[in-house]
């Protein structure tokens, strides 16, 4: 009959998984907040909620991934930044309602566990957690031989945060006269990469390792620029100024995401002339002959987070953000309107 079947023979290596856990332990340890109980390796993670610090706490949760940006990371064989993107996608959704991120758990699915590659991914996740002030308390690495190629992987995460019930931000607090501030993105972030790959790699057939003068680096390096993480900046701004709402600009672009925090009867009127999109967006549009409306639906266009602020606090808010090295521009104002559109964009971008 010959030797019996083994798990390793089916393509799953328990030893490689254990080696990966050993390699990532130092990364998770450096993210630990004092509320974390224990370390990774258990069946569940423990976090002591500091209820004594709150009057009426609400827990907030968010789950997301990084989409097909992983294909760029795999093609470049650069894996230490994609984890930062993963953290950004979930913690900045939490912050949009005013919640402080507490902890995060990741899920990595791959065709074959390569411990060093997994460790590189998790090192980026840990970097992101440090930037967001939250703990990486655990996760799961799953090997899917036969379903995924050996070098392929996909990422997802869930984060949990906390906010006082009477400090939740959102459309209930937005008023006519509020000012809309746009917080600069670091690049494409982690949305629209199916379009990016279709235009730049399939249609234009551009090499990822080719130097691009407009970027001052290779195309691949530009596309792998990690998401800016706004969590601590936004939490600080909400403590110091009269912030009414945040909108995390992800899939769907500026208009559809900002519309989620503008209540009925009001419209945010924004002027494209108030900011210049980053060069990468003109590069994509030019190579794919992509129309403005399509670009604005697929990409953040240089604005990664929006803050809706009381009119009296705009100057102070901008000063605080400038001190934190986060560029911010006045995009427009919130007005009463009978128009069904919650957000209206007018004008043309400079040099785009």
Automatic annotation (TrEMBL):
Gene3D superfamilies, A to Z: PurM-like C-terminal domain (3.90.650.10), PurM-like, N-terminal domain (3.30.1330.10)
Which residue range or ranges hold the PurM-like C-terminal domain?
Answer: 175-339
Q: Per UniProt, which keywords does this protein have?
A: ATP-binding, Cytoplasm, Ligase, Nucleotide-binding, Purine biosynthesis
The record's annotation in HAMAP family points to: AIRS
Q: Which reaction does it catalyse?
A: 2-formamido-N(1)-(5-O-phospho-beta-D-ribosyl)acetamidine + ATP = 5-amino-1-(5-phospho-beta-D-ribosyl)imidazole + ADP + phosphate + H(+)
**Protein family per UniProt:** Belongs to the AIR synthase family.
- Give the GO molecular function terms: ATP binding; phosphoribosylamine-glycine ligase activity; phosphoribosylformylglycinamidine cyclo-ligase activity
State a single Pfam family of this protein.
AIRS
Q: Which GO terms describe its cellular component?
A: cytosol
EC number(s)?
A: 6.3.3.1
What InterPro entries is this protein classified in? PurM-like_C_dom (IPR010918), PurM-like_C_sf (IPR036676), PurM-like_N (IPR016188), PurM-like_N_sf (IPR036921), PurM_cligase (IPR004733)
Its recorded name reads Phosphoribosylformylglycinamidine cyclo-ligase
Q: Which residues form a coiled coil?
A: none
| Organism annotation | Nakamurella flavida
Keyword Amino-acid biosynthesis applies: no
Pathway(s) this gene product operates in, as recorded in its UniProt entry: Purine metabolism; IMP biosynthesis via de novo pathway; 5-amino-1-(5-phospho-D-ribosyl)imidazole from N(2)-formyl-N(1)-(5-phospho-D-ribosyl)glycinamide: step 2/2
* Origin superkingdom: Bacteria
One GO BP annotation of this record: 'de novo' IMP biosynthetic process
State which gene encodes it: purM
State if Cytoplasm is listed as a keyword. yes
Per its UniProt record, what PANTHER family does this chain match?
TRIFUNCTIONAL PURINE BIOSYNTHETIC PROTEIN ADENOSINE-3 (PTHR10520:SF12), TRIFUNCTIONAL PURINE BIOSYNTHETIC PROTEIN ADENOSINE-3-RELATED (PTHR10520)
């Amino acid at each position: 009959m010959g030797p019996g079947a083994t798990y390793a023979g089916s393509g799953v290596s328990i030893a490689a998984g254990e080696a990966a856990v050993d390699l990532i332990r130092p990364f998770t340890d450096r993210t630990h907040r004092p509320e974390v109980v224990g370390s990774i390796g258990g069946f569940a993670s423990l976090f002591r909620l500091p209820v004594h610090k709150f009057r009426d706490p609400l827990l907030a949760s968010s789950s997301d991934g990084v989409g097909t940006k992983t294909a760029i990371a795999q093609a470049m064989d650069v894996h230490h930044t994609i984890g930062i993107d993963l953290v950004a996608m979930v913690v900045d959704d939490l912050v949009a309602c005013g919640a402080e991120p507490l902890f995060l758990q990741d899920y990595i699915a791959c065709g074959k566990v390569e411990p060093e590659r997994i460790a590189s991914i998790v090192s980026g996740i840990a970097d992101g957690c440090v930037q967001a002030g939250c703990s990486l308390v655990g996760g799961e690495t799953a090997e899917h031989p036969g379903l995924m190629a050996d070098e392929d992987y996909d990422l997802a995460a869930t984060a949990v945060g906390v906010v006082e019930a009477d400090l939740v931000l959102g459309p209930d607090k937005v008023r006519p006269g509020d000012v809309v501030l746009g917080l600069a993105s670091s690049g494409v972030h982690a949305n629209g990469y199916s379009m990016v790959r279709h235009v730049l790699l399939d249609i234009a057939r551009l090499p990822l390792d080719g130097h691009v003068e407009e970027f001052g680096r290779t195309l691949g390096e530009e596309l792998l620029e990690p998401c800016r993480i706004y969590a601590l900046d936004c939490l600080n701004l909400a403590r110091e100024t009269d912030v009414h709402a945040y909108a995390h600009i992800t899939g769907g672009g500026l208009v559809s995401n900002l519309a989620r925090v503008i209540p009925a009867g009001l419209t945010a009127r924004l002027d494209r002339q108030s900011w210049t999109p980053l060069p990468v967006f003109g590069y994509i549009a030019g190579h794919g002959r992509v129309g403005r409306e399509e670009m604005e639906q697929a990409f953040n266009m240089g604005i990664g987070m929006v803050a809706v602020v009381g009119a009296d606090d705009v100057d102070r808010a901008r000063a605080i953000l400038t001190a934190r090295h986060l560029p911010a521009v006045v995009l427009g104002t919130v007005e009463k309107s009978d128009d069904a559109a919650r957000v209206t964009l007018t004008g043309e971008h400079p040099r785009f």
